Each structure stands twice: as C-alpha cells, then as structure tokens.
Amino acid sequence: MKINNLSSISFLSTLSILVAFTSLTISVYAQEDRNTTDSEMPKFFAIQHATSGKISEINETTYSLELNDVSDKTILFSDRPDRIVKTESTTNFTDNWSTGADSFAVDTPNAVLVVEESERQDNTIIELFNPTYDSNKKTLKYNVIPDNVTSIDLVGEFGQATLLIDPGGQSGPGT
Hints:
With 175 residues, the chain is mainly beta. The chain is 10% helix and 43% strand. The radius of gyration is 16 Å and the shape is globular.
C-alpha cells in the first residue's frame, strides 16, 4: 500500500483541534433552535487517533490496519447546517458497525489515514471493514482496501496516526 504526501496544513490543524476534544462527552450545536426529524438527521464524520500502528498484507487486495494506544472515545462531527461535535465510546462505535439498514457493514465507509513520520505527513484513502477494538490493550484493528495508488509504501510500522472516517450516505455507528 502506498500513500501521498499531505500538503494541506490547514487540514491537519483542523484534525489536531478536533483530536483535542477527545475528553468531551456532550454535543455542541451551532444552531440550537433547529428542529430535526429522523429523516433529516445529520451524517457524522468520525476521528480516531493513535500513537502508532502497522499495516500488513492479508492478500493482494486486502490489508490489516492496527492502531495502537487508541483513545476510548471516537470524535464525531457533522457538517453544515448542524455543525455538531460529540464523542462516542470507541467500543460502541465498533460494536454498532453493522447495526441498522444503512450500517457500515452494508456500505463500507471510506477513510483517510494520516500518518505523521519524522518531519512529514502522509495520507492514503482506504475502505474500512471488520473493526475490532480491545479496550484493555487500546488496540483498534480494521481490514482495509486501499482506494488510491500512491507514492510511498506504508506496509509495516508507523508512528502517530489519525483516521478520518467518512460515512458517505450512511449514518454509520454512533449517530
């Protein structure tokens, strides 16, 4: 699996700010007076942060992504018009992966894995499958399929990483 050099400092700054909110356990609404029905529920992006990880090949198309020292909270945020920020336990996030008619098991989410190595930051777009979270070891594992062919080989171990999960048309877990 290969990854591209991430050139957007503002993107990483935003991720860093959102990662700082891992201790939040409440929702923050930009528009308090909005009346939302179930059919208008916002879609939530999810952020998971790890101090290290590794990627190993399962077969020619599928890899195993292991993230270490993962927070017990997954940050969730929605886009306009709601702009909601909240946290969900990582256990609940992974346990509810296949819950509901529009679950991530039905339509797998895309994600960007941002890896910070030495003085550079790299990223790759992946599809996520079969999450398992060990809360005692703080280890989160996914099966992944790379969605882009890029320039740097990431198979092996790496340092600090952030995973930004895009729900696409699905509501996904934790929403």
